[in-house]
Every structure is written in structure tokens, then in C-alpha cells.
């Protein structure tokens, strides 16, 4: 008898394979996000990241902080320099921009 867990794992694996495409082409942004999480996932600031994307040649990192708390300095933010160096080391983007949860650009580096 096959366990429900085994069925779930097989189903999720099939979804992941289908989402990655049949051609086996890599997704640099997805690979970057995975490497970034592996490297910084245990830091005190990583849990504030809600999204990452490369747009306009820059790595845009969205956080759970709103722009008002960021302006008041009451929100700890992602260390921009760390993210910038990591992005450069992985050939992704030529700058980093931090985006507040309400869509306001909080600043950048690089």
C-alpha cells in the first residue's frame, strides 16, 4: 500500500518538473532565490523578505515592512550591501532596490 505522503511527494515532484519546463532550461532568478535562501535563510532579517525579482536590470527585494515604518527607522531592513554583493557574485542584476510592502521604494545600493 502506498502512503498518502508518498503520493503527495510524487504529485509535488511532478508539478515542480512541469513548472520547470520540459526543455530543462534553467531559471536564473529561481536559482538565485534558492541560493540566497540557502545562504541567508537563517539570518535575523531574511524572514522579512516577501519577494524577489529582477526588473530593469536591478534585483528588487520586497519586504514586509511598510514605507512609514521604514522612514521612521523602526523597521529592520535587508542588508542591502549583502544582497548586492550576492547578486553580483551570481551575475544577477547590477543593483539592489528594497521595496516596502506598500510598493514604495525604500532605497537601494549598487
Give me some keywords for this one.
alpha+beta; four-stranded mixed beta sheet; 4 strands; globular; 110 residues
Describe this structure in words.
This protein has 110 residues and is of the alpha+beta class. The protein has one domain (27-109). Helices cover 42% and strands 20% of the residues. It contains 4 helices and 4 strands. Strand 3 and strand 4 (105-109) form a beta hairpin. It is globular and about 40 Å long. Mean pLDDT is 74; it is low at 5-21.
Q: Quick recap of the structure?
A:
The protein has 110 residues and is an alpha+beta fold. The chain is 42% helix and 20% strand. The chain has one domain (27-109).
The proportion of strand residues reads 15-25%
Task: Estimate the mean pLDDT confidence.
Answer: 74
> Strand order, biggest sheet?
1-2-3-4
Return Rg in Å: 17 Å
E-strand count: 4
* Terminal CA distance: 56 Å
> How many domain units?
1
Helical content stands at: 40-55%
What characteristic shape results from the CA principal axes? globular
DSSP helical segment count: 4
Structural class by sheet pairing and helices: alpha+beta
- SSE order, as H and E? HHEEHHEE
* Main sheet specs: 4 strands, mixed
Low-confidence stretches: 5-21
